[in-house]
Specification:
Elements lengths: L1 E5 L6 H12 L2 E4 H11 L2 H12 L5 H12 L8 E4 L5 H14 L5 E6 L2 H9 L1 E4 L5 E3 L12 E2 L6 H15 L1 H8 L3 E5 L4 H12 L2
Parallel strand pairs: 1-3, 1-4, 2-3, 4-8
Antiparallel strand pairs: 5-6, 5-7
Helix pairs in contact: 1-9, 2-3, 4-5, 6-7
Bound molecules: adenosine monophosphate (AMP).
Length: about 210
């Protein structure tokens, strides 16, 4: 199964992706995680991306499209994949369609996790992530409940940057909802509920 996850930053895409991957052994392609790894490793890509990420702006399309195209060429994606945080612009969606039709691996669904923006500001400012396994928790998790790793706050999870990320989402990414509706791939789930309840609906909607 090949899935695109849509939704504002903080809607719960990463949390739902982690659950699907655990249960169905899909390949998780998170452009945000790939970029943060590049920043941490100090690669040329990381140096290019860091300024955009710290401001909550989008990394240029050509950079991110190249990154995803290379990742999709890796053999582990053949078992099925979840794209998390990509596409985020119309140009990225068009490039993805072209690449997937070349690979003859069409999308099965575009899953929108829908959450009100004001709920998201509160969520992101209290979000903490495990440095070791990537578990997504809250400020209440002093250590990772999954692996005892160190929990940290992402540089871009502060209120000013979060508000800019939400504006960028509204302007550049939310038009993709209509794009995927037009392709008859859109599935919308109310994400403002307990993650387990959301996940049950996600599986239902995907016919899993
Ligand atoms: P995320 O972890 O998905 O919230 O992404 C963190 C940051 O990485 C975003 O605010 C952007 O600066 C950058 N980023 C991630 N994915 C993309 C993308 N598809 N296009 C452009 N920038 C991206």
């Amino acid at each position: 199964m090949n899935i695109v996850l849509l939704g504002a930053p903080g809607a719960g895409k990463g949390t739902q992706a982690a659950k699907l991957i655990d249960e169905y052994n899909l390949c998780h392609i998170s452009t945000g995680d790939m970029l943060r790894a590049a920043v941490a490793a100090g690669t040329e890509l990381g140096q290019k991306a860091k300024g955009y990420m710290d401001a909550g702006d989008l990394v240029p399309d050509d950079v991110i499209i190249g990154l995803v195209t290379e990742r999709l060429a890796e053999p582990d994606t053949e078992k099925g994949f979840i794209l998390d945080g990509f596409p985020r612009t119309s140009a990225q969606a068009v490039a993805l369609d072209a690449e997937l039709s070349k690979l003859e691996r069409p999308l099965d669904a575009a899953l929108l996790i829908d959450v009100d923006p004001e709920v998201i500001v509160g969520r992101l400012c209290s979000r903490r992530v495990c440095r070791d396994c990537g578990y997504i928790g809250t400020v209440a998790d002093t250590v990772c409940p999954k692996c005892d790793g160190e929990m940290y706050q992402r540089d871009d999870d502060n209120e000013a940057t979060v508000r800019n990320r939400l504006e960028v989402y509204e302007k550049s990414t939310s038009p993709l909802i209509d794009y995927y509706r037009g392709c008859e791939l859109l599935v919308t789930i109310d994400g403002d509920r307990d993650p387990e309840v959301v996940y049950a609906d996600v599986k239902d909607a995907l016919g899993l």
